[in-house]
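Intended use. Records like the one below are meant for learning the mapping from a protein sequence to its folded structure. Do not use them to infer anything beyond what is encoded.
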Amino acid sequence: MAVNISSLDLNGSRAGATAGAAPNASATQSTSTIPQDATQQQQTQVSITSTASLLARLQQALAAEPAVDRGRVDSISRALAAGSYRINGDNIARGLIHTERALGELQLSQI
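Structure written out for the chain above:
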């Protein structure tokens, strides 16, 4: 069953209708009066928000990327085993700050 809310104002009445006007009979008809077989045969129309669309695109982009950079993990594992891996807190902090600044400059349409 398709639901059209584009003609409703914030008060829930149809746009352009006067305050005392009777609502359209088809708009007030309860779905409980429709036989069960008829409701099962009707198609449902769904609209999603731009945020949901953005999240769906982001999910698709992330799904295309590997979850783990296997080469980097192997390299770090070898360095840890050899005792040559050093943690540089300044590099980590710079990287985090750089990432935050870069994300803050992006428009939602770029993400």
